[in-house]
């Protein structure tokens, strides 16, 4: 693994100083200098004799080294060299003079600024996105495993638990720091089958909460123990109690409260700390969140000021004129390339006065700006102070030009998108109204949308949105068939699922993606921001981008999966495109219902809730026997005060999908749901607890009372759902 020669070879290349940077359970970190270049490094020395006592194997060290060698990124600690002898293994690592990031968070405490937090989280997510793109899961993300370079650059370190995770695979070994482990790790092996890359994002979200509150963990109690109930709920409290006390807005938690940081910051943290791993923000999507880049401009400003401050300080102290790092060929004007470019600007009114200048920065950029030397021309008189003014004004003008160019480019892009959208809609309308012979002259994409709709084939992965509530945003699902009678899909988690609630799956390969030609609706964020009445736009799938898990549509490239839903296809179109997969037994009952009248309307034209609620009742009517609780039903779990869908029922045990994890509970522990959306349909055979008899008796659902949220049973009217359970 290491270079031959061990300590002798190490001493030949590096001078190991007697400065201890850290001490671990079986190793020590020393500061060292590269003898030729003078570069400072950190040498991690691991004692071989102590490794077995700590449960560390040689394969673990070799895996850690291979993971670090596979990653080369600006926010990941670099591994320069490895050495080994009979007693120790040595790793020469990138030296970070700022120390442990966890210590920095605790040191800053509640004075941490939001823009700094955004910049640190951007660096974390950039590092994780690089790891995940390489197929590496870190499994031990926390503030203590990031090092600080300078004042604000983070470096991910400690790859002792990192492992390669092939696409489509899951990990089943429980390891990591318990306080930062995701719910799917804690619930193994009974209630969770395994985990993957989302565990790193959960830990990043917990780390962000600790940054916001100066080291306070969201799920640790007063005894510094993990509160599993809070962790499984995933609720984050952003109340700033210190600010409340300071401003006198509340007493002992009463009265008005203040939320820490802005709503975009809190929303980003909540998207990371999602109990359901399928709904958790991935690293690829996280780095595209606008709030995450809000701190970059401020960090650039600080960096520019830090680089320019020595020259100004010398000028103020009278120790000499500020010297630019590079000059033009004429030798009298600083080269623009000698200074950093970016979005940062020198603040006005900062009090710094270059030597020989009679006015402050606010005067220079205000009244005196027109008299300042122009970019590209030498200052009048060649005075050193003129050189400093020329540099500052050049920066200001260049940044104004850059901002103007960016705004103009954004305006052009918006106009182009609007034009493309209008053109596409015009073509679709023209194709639908044109005679058959004219259709063949249209483009392939338009022809596909107008004449060849594609249904999602059986076995395709997707996500089902059972409700608009954020508690259960998505459930992982698989297409099992299409119902041509009511134009719905049968999923493994829900029969007769409405297309408008089916979204593409994430973390998949190109082979598992939705096929080209699938008809979908795209919910445009731009139209939402513009206040458009209808943000959804009809679209057609063109291809899948495996790198960032997005789809190329005919109206937009790199469309986010969360903004895509299946388009509802009329029955006659679906039958022409693909034979229906509705079962023969289900068809007579549903057709019978479609002939009935309700409030003067055909049932086939009722809202989607009617068809969803009546699907199981129709099945029971056809089979000629009462329908019992099974796949597709929702139940209330009083123990955890939550609702979950039933995946399967075997021998009195129901398998529920709770936050993406399979949980087995006895039927006696479940109750009927109170919400109308999930109410059990007519004909369902249940057990009712009779107060007069003092026992559970067999009953059948006759209806649901919307006003009182109760059930009418054949043995009791307006029965409380808490007294109704599966049989």
UniProtKB/TrEMBL annotation:
GO molecular function: ATP binding; protein kinase activity
Organism: Symbiodinium natans
UniProt-annotated binding residues for ATP: 44
Cross-referenced Pfam families: Pkinase (PF00069)
Keywords recorded for this protein, A-Z: ATP-binding, Coiled coil, Nucleotide-binding
Gene: Dclk3
Protein name in UniProt: Dclk3 protein
Source organism, top-level taxon: Eukaryota
Positions of the UniProt region annotated as Disordered: 301-387
Stretches of the chain forming a coiled coil according to its record: 390-424
Domain Protein kinase: 15-292
